Design the sequence.
């Protein structure tokens, strides 16, 4: 495969993962579970998230696929040698005992995620418990000391701090102060105008704070103070934020930023990125 086409494939993987991550609650292991914690009027479990976010996220994923097929055409026909694929597959041999244990634990995790509305078990604790079981002797022996040592503790500390901002703001009164000081005294009655205003405020805060998670910790509780007074469903406001940062302002996604860091010197993307990114931005915003 030519280098130019390989870069397009790499971009497709990273770009497509953004809308696909919205389909399931565990699709984005940080942002999705975080936003549901701000909803006090309804318990959003795994199934409920799929009912609300699944259909629009699937639509967004399909439209992203169509756009990619239109905008990123291969420089020449792609040929797949299935004989080589079958040879490589047969060389892998049968599943090892370690792979079987891994599959079993993954199936257990998925089963507990799907039933967390019945069991009441948080998806975060389920995931941590399964990971710990995969490190136990006899029943695990999948995760070793090396894998656990690769966990970026500094990132966990940052995430914990960013998430805690909203709780601290609620206890100290910071959220109410932000709502009274920075937000308009009267909120527009038109729901579309209100959505645009919330988006503008969130983008402005994001330009100063940089972190989507930190912005959510500050902006969502403060804006909920105002919208609750108008009788607007908290769930609508919360999901507006996740659509804003994951689907509309998608160029701020850490997934795409990671890809751009890998391929920032690639000429074939650099030459045409303004038109293509602008087209995708307008398409998603519409």
Sequence:
């Amino acid at each position: 495969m030519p280098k130019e086409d390989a870069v397009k494939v790499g971009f497709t993987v990273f770009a497509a993962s953004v809308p696909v991550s919205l389909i399931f609650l565990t699709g984005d292991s940080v942002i999705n579970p975080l936003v549901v914690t701000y909803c006090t009027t309804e318990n959003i479990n795994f199934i409920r998230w799929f009912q609300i976010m699944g259909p629009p996220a699937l639509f967004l994923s399909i439209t992203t696929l169509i756009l990619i097929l239109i905008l990123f055409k291969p420089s020449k026909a792609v040929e797949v040698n299935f004989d080589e694929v079958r040879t490589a597959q047969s060389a892998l041999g049968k599943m090892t005992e370690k792979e079987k244990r891994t599959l079993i634990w993954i199936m257990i995790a998925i089963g507990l995620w799907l039933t967390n509305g019945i069991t009441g078990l948080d998806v975060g604790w389920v995931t941590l418990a399964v990971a710990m079981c995969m490190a136990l002797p006899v029943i695990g022996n999948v995760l070793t000391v090396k894998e656990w040592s690769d966990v970026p503790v500094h990132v966990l500390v940052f995430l914990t701090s960013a998430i805690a901002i909203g709780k601290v703001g609620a206890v100290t009164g910071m959220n109410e102060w932000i709502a009274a000081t920075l937000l308009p005294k009267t909120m527009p009655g038109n729901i579309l105008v209100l959505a645009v205003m919330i988006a503008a405020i969130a983008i402005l805060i994001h330009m100063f704070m940089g972190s989507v998670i930190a912005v959510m910790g500050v902006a969502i509780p403060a804006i909920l103070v105002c919208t609750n007074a108008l009788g607007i469903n908290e769930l609508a406001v919360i999901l507006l934020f996740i659509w804003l940062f994951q689907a509309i302002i998608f160029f701020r996604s850490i997934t795409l930023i990671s890809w751009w860091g890998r391929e920032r010197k690639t000429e074939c993307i650099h030459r045409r990125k303004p038109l293509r990114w602008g087209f995708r931005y307008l398409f998603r915003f519409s």
